[in-house]
Each structure stands twice: as C-alpha cells, then as structure tokens.
Design brief:
Number of helices: 4
Structural class: alpha/beta
Strand content: 15-25%
Distance between the termini: 27 Å
Order of helices and strands: EEEHEHEHEEH
Number of domains: 2
Number of strands: 7
Largest sheet: 4 strands, mixed
Radius of gyration: 15 Å
Length: 172
Amino acid sequence: MAAPVSIAYTHVHSMRIASGAEALAARVLTADGTAGFGFTLNEDAGVARDMAAWDAAARSRNVPLYRLFGDRRIDAVPVVLDAGLPGLDPFALGSLEQARTAASAQASVALLAPNAHPWEIAWCAALAAALPRGDAKVLVRVSPEFPAFPVSSAPGIGVDWSLEPAFSAIRW
C-alpha cells in the first residue's frame, strides 16, 4: 500500500547511532512541501523512505499516523521480552499493510523491535495503535527498559528524533 502523498524529493543519510549501529535516516518532501522522516537499522533504504512517506502523509494532515486509519485503540503498547513468540517484522516495505492484515486474522499481533531502540519501539507503537484490534505488543530481544510505550498523539509517526544527536547533525 503506497503512502497517500506525492513525493517530490527523497534524501537518505547514513549515520552512526549511540549504540554503534548504523542507521539509515530518510527525509521526504511532499509536493506541498511537508517533510516526513523515517529510519531503518537494516540495509534497505526503501523501508526508511516508506516510513518517511507515511510520516509526511500524517504531518500534512496534522494528525498522528493512526488517525489515517481510524481511531486510536490503545494508549500504550506493552513491551515484552521476545520469548520465541512469532513476531511480525514492522520494518519491511509495506509493513503497515502486513500488520493490518495479520491483526484482522489473529487474536493478537506481536511487532518485533529487534534492537529495542526507542525509534523502533515508537514505530511499533504507532502501527499498533492503527490496528483493528487493540491487543498488540512489542517484542524486544533484551530486557525491556519499560513495561509499556505510550502511543504518541504528535502529528506523524511519533518518533522522538532528538534521541540520537547524530540525527540533528544531518544537513538535509
């Protein structure tokens, strides 16, 4: 499912985050000049661009991401240690549509945030809030720092980009 915006410009930047991992951060500008941001901690820049397009779509309407799909169904998403539960990869192209399809077919959806980075968890929370069922959880591979992550009401996907100083140093 493509983002409901016309993208006029895309810029992807590689940066080293505080953990030492490499992240790809993307910025898209829509035809109306709205900027959206996305990221990936894997090697597929398309994921970051897809996320940035959804962020721009929500920002251009001045609504949180979940509002593009209906009402928020949960205020906070449980964050649990991955105990071998099957997890949906929310960092694949088309992940929003995959999550919505899985939620329609299952009683619960587990979204995997493999690095437990706050950006990953925030993206999972934004997806979870948009799901038809309100019982999604975020799986992490290390002991979670917090039992639940709040769903942001900020316009866009709700990621706090200031968590990584390298992000603010990017010259878009």
